[in-house]
Structure of rRNA-processing protein UTP23 homolog:
Amino acid sequence: MVIPVVDMLNERKLNKYATYLSKCSREVGVHFTSLHGFTPVGRFPSIDSGSFYEMKIKRYKRAKRIISIYRHNFGFESPYQVLLDGTFAMAALQNKINLREQMPKYLNAEVDIRVTNCVLKELEKLGSTLYGALYICKQFDVESCPHQPTRTAVECMKHMARRMKNRTAYFFATQDNELTEALKQIPGIPILFIKYNSILIDKPSQATIQEIEKPKDELLEINELKKAIFGESEKPRRKRKGPKGPNPLSVKKKKKKIRLTSTDQKLRSCTKAAASKRRRRRKKKKGSEG
């Protein structure tokens, strides 16, 4: 295979060339390295394998597995409500991540991204250094929080997490370590963060795992107490099926008895008496003839 001569000074051209080489054989890649003295590395997969795509698939599978835990145990439903703070918005800006596009792809569902009023006020106070994060946050709907006067973003997000049991279930998107540690103490809180230029979901915290396993442990204890007090209960025997009745379609329907009036009953008795007389006469005739 003939390798085309490409100007490698431009990074964009280098990336395009890397994609071309990724489709070629290993020998071509080795030949390229020997000619130019380096292997093209960029946002495209390496020459040797499709590890880039494998990692991407693993990332989505991991997210799907973790989200299913929250769906089945804590009642999360699509569209997911995501609460954003300034640190996450700033990280998205630095890593050039479009949250409206990437968040639904990663969570594999419709997403409603929201920001609390406290977060917006804090970003406004911090000034021009976080103007980009403020601009991103203002693109999303404002989630009402009961804080008057406004609190810090960390305190506001903690409060929103604590009141989640009786209200809307949120995904919390943050890069703040203090807030992350506080959220991990509350069971059933999914946490999103940005790392390696991509959105990731944190694994379920210890508090979440304990909450999931708690009902099972209680049931086991109750069953053990029942066995200790009442003894082992015998398994209920299955009832044997007896012979089936006749087919209702093949059985003649019972004739309904007609209630006779007094006059009808008299007539009927008269006819019966007359019929019995006729029988007697016939018997007498047969006897005389014999």
About this structure: The two ends are 130 Å apart (CA to CA). The beta strands are 80-84, 111-116, 141-143, 170-173, 191-195, 198-201. Residues 1-9, 38-49 have pLDDT under 50 and may be disordered.
